[in-house]
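Per your request, structure below.
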C-alpha cells in the first residue's frame, strides 16, 4: 500500500478519533465514580463490611452524628479509626469524624479526663458517649444508646448513711448520677421514713452501702419490693452489717474479712486492699468489655445452693488474692488454717428470677461501693462497668452483640524444610536463572 498524502490524513484522523473516544470514556468513568460508589468485600469473613444490624441502625438514624477522636498526632490508631468510621460514612454521609491532638487542647483534655490512650466522643442530638476503645460493636452500641432517649428512673435509698447521687463528697455518687442523667436515666432519692413506698416509676432500686440499720418497717418495704420482682443494685462494703436482713432473701452470704490482691502492686498500687479485675465471665453486662476495673475495698461472697435466683459470678478477683480477716498492716499473708479463703473470689453476682413468661427480675450485688464513688469512678473501666450494670438492670437490652471479625488466614506457618527451600530458591536459584537468561540473550545478539 502506497502511503499517499490522503492516506496519511486518514490515519491521523483515525488516531484523533480513537484518542477522543478514549478521553470521553475516561471522563465518563470519572463522572460515574464520582456520582456512584461501589465497594466489594472479597474477604472470607467480610471483615471490611458492617454487620446488617449496624446498617439497619444507620439507615434509621435521622440527623447528623459527630465523632471527635482525641488522639495524639502520628499514632497508627488514627488510621484505624478513620478506616472504621469510613464504613459508617459510606452509609450515613452526615456522620463526620474529626481528630484533635489532646496536647493542643489541654483544657478540653482536663474536662474530659483524657488519658495517654486517648478518647473518642460520639455526639448525637445533644447527647454524647465517651469511648476509650473503639470497634464496630462499641461504636454501634454507642449510636444505639444515643438514638433512644426515653426517660428512665433509678431510685437511690437514703436516710441510713448511703452513698448519695446528689452529694459531691469523695465517697458519694454525684459523678455517677450525672453520667446517668446524660444518658436519659434520671436519679431520684427516697427516704422510706418519709415516703413509705418505693415510687411506681422506678425501674431500679439502688441500696449503696448503708452505714446504719434500716427500721423494721423499711426492711419490710424492701422485702415486699423484692417479692414483687423489683430490680435491685446492692453495693455492700466489707463488714457492712446494715445489710444482714437482705442476704437470706437473695441466697448470698458475705465472706469474713475483705479481699486483698497481690496483682494490685503489679498495677502500681501499693495498697493491698485494691482489687484489680481483668477477666470477666460471659454475661450481657460484660459482653465485649475489655477494660480493667478497680475495686478499692471489696468483700467476697458465696452463693447458697438453694437460692431462689439463678446466679452468674460477675466479678472475680485473681488467683493471687484471698480474704484477709486480720488488719491490713505490716506483712500480711494467707492463713490456710483459718477462715480465710484463697482466690479467685467472687465480689459481684448477677441474679435473675423469671416471674412469668415475659418478666424477669434482675439483681446485681457488688461487694464494693467505692468503685463508683466520686474519687474512683474515673479509674480504668469503673464508669463503663457501672453504666453497663444499670443498663442491664433496667432491661435496656438493645445493645448489639456484634462478633469480632477475624481472618482465618492471617498467619502462615511453614516447616523448616519449606523455609530452607524458599530461601535457597530466592537467594541462589532465581539469581542464577536470571544470569543464565541474560547470558543466552547476549550470545544470540552477538551472533547476529
Amino acid at each position: 500500500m502506497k502511503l499517499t498524502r490522503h492516506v496519511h490524513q486518514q490515519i491521523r484522523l483515525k488516531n484523533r478519533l480513537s484518542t477522543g473516544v478514549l478521553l470521553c470514556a475516561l471522563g465518563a468513568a470519572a463522572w460515574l465514580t464520582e456520582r456512584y460508589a461501589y465497594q466489594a468485600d472479597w474477604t472470607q469473613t467480610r471483615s471490611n463490611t458492617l454487620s446488617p444490624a449496624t446498617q439497619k441502625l444507620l439507615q434509621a438514624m435521622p440527623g447528623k452524628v459527630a465523632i471527635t477522636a482525641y488522639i495524639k498526632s502520628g499514632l497508627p490508631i488514627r488510621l484505624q479509626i478513620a478506616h472504621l468510621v469510613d464504613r459508617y460514612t459510606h452509609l450515613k454521609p452526615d456522620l463526620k469524624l474529626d481528630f484533635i491532638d489532646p496536647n493542643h487542647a489541654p483544657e478540653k483534655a482536663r474536662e474530659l479526663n483524657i488519658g495517654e490512650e486517648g478518647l473518642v466522643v460520639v455526639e448525637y442530638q445533644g447527647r454524647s458517649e465517651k469511648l476509650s476503645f473503639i470497634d464496630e460493636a462499641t461504636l454501634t452500641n454507642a449510636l444505639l444508646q444515643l438514638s433512644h432517649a426515653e426517660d428512665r428512673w433509678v431510685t437511690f435509698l437514703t436516710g441510713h448513711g448511703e452513698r448519695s447521687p446528689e452529694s459531691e463528697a469523695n465517697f458519694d455518687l454525684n459523678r455517677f448520677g450525672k453520667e446517668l442523667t446524660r444518658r436519659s436515666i434520671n436519679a431520684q432519692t427516697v427516704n422510706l421514713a418519709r415516703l413509705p413506698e418505693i415510687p411506681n416509676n422506678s425501674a431500679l432500686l439502688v441500696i449503696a452501702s448503708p452505714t446504719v440499720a434500716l427500721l423494721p418497717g423499711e426492711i419490710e418495704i424492701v422485702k415486699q419490693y423484692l417479692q414483687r420482682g423489683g430490680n435491685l443494685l446492692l453495693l455492700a462494703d466489707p463488714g457492712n452489717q446494715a445489710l444482714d436482713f437482705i442476704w437470706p432473701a437473695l441466697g448470698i452470704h458475705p465472706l469474713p474479712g475483705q479481699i486483698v490482691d497481690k496483682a494490685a502492686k503489679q498495677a502500681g498500687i501499693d495498697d493491698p486492699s485494691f482489687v484489680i479485675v481483668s477477666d470477666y465471665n460471659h454475661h450481657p453486662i460484660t459482653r465485649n468489655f475489655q477494660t480493667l476495673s478497680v475495686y478499692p475495698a471489696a468483700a467476697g461472697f458465696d452463693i447458697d445452693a438453694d437460692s431462689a435466683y439463678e446466679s452468674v459470678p460477675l466479678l472475680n478477683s485473681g488467683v493471687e488474692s484471698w480474704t484477709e480477716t486480720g488488719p491490713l498492716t505490716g506483712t500480711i499473708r494467707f492463713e490456710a488454717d483459718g477462715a480465710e479463703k484463697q482466690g479467685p473470689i467472687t465480689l459481684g453476682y448477677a441474679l435473675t428470677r423469671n416471674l412469668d413468661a415475659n418478666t424477669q427480675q434482675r439483681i446485681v450485688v457488688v461487694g464494693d461501693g467505692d468503685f463508683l464513688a466520686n474519687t474512683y469512678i474515673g479509674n480504668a473501666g469503673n464508669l463503663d462497668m457501672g453504666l453497663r450494670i444499670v443498663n442491664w438492670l433496667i432491661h435496656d437490652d438493645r445493645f448489639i452483640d456484634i462478633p469480632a471479625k477475624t481472618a482465618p488466614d492471617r498467619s502462615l506457618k511453614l516447616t523448616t524444610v519449606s523455609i530452607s527451600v524458599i530461601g535457597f530458591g530466592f537467594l541462589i536459584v532465581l539469581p542464577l536463572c536470571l544470569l543464565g537468561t541474560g547470558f543466552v540473550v547476549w550470545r544470540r545478539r552477538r551472533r547476529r
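Residues 239 and 257 are 7 Å apart (CA to CA).

Regards,
D.
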